[in-house]
Amino acid sequence: MEGKIIVVTSGKGGVGKTTATASIGAGLAMEGKRVAVVDMDIGLRNLDVVMGLENRIVFNVVDAVKGKCKLAQAAIKDRRINNLFLIPASQSDNKNVLIPEDMVRFGETLKAEYDYILMDCPAGIERGFENSVAAADEALVVCMPEVSSVRDADRVIGLLYARSITPKLIVNRIVPEMVERGDMLSHEDIVDVLSVDLIGLVPMDDNVIVSTNTGNPLVLQKESKAGAAFLRIAMRVNGRTDLPIEVPRAQGKFWKRMGTKFGLGK
Questions:
Q1: pLDDT tens, 110-155?
Q2: Number of domains comprising the chain
Q3: HEC string for the chain
Q4: 66 FRET partner, CA 20 to 30 A, in 8, 87, 180, 241?
Q5: Would 266 be classed as within a structural domain?
Q6: Domain holding 201: CATH number?
Q7: Which domain holds residue 193?
């Protein structure tokens, strides 16, 4: 059985695509799958830092696609999670060095070696996007609960459907207290606007910053609510359709509700 390529995209930057790619990839590897996460942000490169592998890069995705090295030479094995590999982006090339046809051919090579391939799509809907989706079988669209992010996600979803790629939605950086006050869009509102299947809800979590700065996988941090959410998303990606989606709740809401019910407090 050949592997599956999943592009992680959003349209705009700063919504947490790279963290999502690293965390879901790690979660799939923890499920026993052989996983490659590919940084497609040619000219920049961040996925290696998030995964704590920046000091081990020799070759990159451009080298592998152009035949300057073998796939196994470009793929960096994670030391903490078995079966997890990073294929980093090039910092010395520009986004036009690759074309979609290159990625279609490279995609077949990747599918022969890995169960899941996650493409970390760069911001925007130009060449970097075209390259990232060229060989994709499915898509995960990362969206924050704010109007501009939803609008950009809507645009990307339309482009994915036009390429016969079925998207699923991740709502990231949810602040439950703000949702309850009506200061932040609820996931129900977002799903209603975008009309796509929801695959996960991820709460705002300071551990994301710690993970990025230390290169310690978020899904390995037991105290991380975001890490737990991404791990559940990985399990759903891997076919666990019976796994319910947990909605982030404000801390203390349960006890406040119980206090109100029994007349304990205002």
A1: 999 999 999 999 988 889 999 999 999 999 999 999 999 999 999 9
A2: 1
A3: CCCEEEEEECCCCCCCHHHHHHHHHHHHHHCCCCEEEEECCCCCCCHHHHCCCHHHCCCCHHHHHCCCCCHHHHCEECCCCCCEEEECCCCCCCHHHCCHHHHHHHHHHHHHHCCEEEEECCCCCCHHHHHHHCCCCEEEEEECCCHHHHHHHHHHHHHHHHCCCEEEEEEEEECHHHHHHCCCCCHHHHHHHHCCEEEEEEECCCHHHHHHHHCCCHHHCCCCHHHHHHHHHHHHHCCCCCCCCCCCCCCCHHHHHHHHHCCCCC
A4: 8
A5: no
A6: 3.40.50.300
A7: 4-261
The token duo for 260 is 């109100």
pLDDT in tens, 168-202: 999 999 999 999 999 999 999 999 999 999 999 99
Which residue, chain included where needed, has tokens 């977002």? 190
Residue 123 lies in a domain: yes
Domain presence at residue 85? yes
Locus of tokens 């809907």: 125
The model carries a pTM of 0.92
64, pLDDT greater than 90: yes
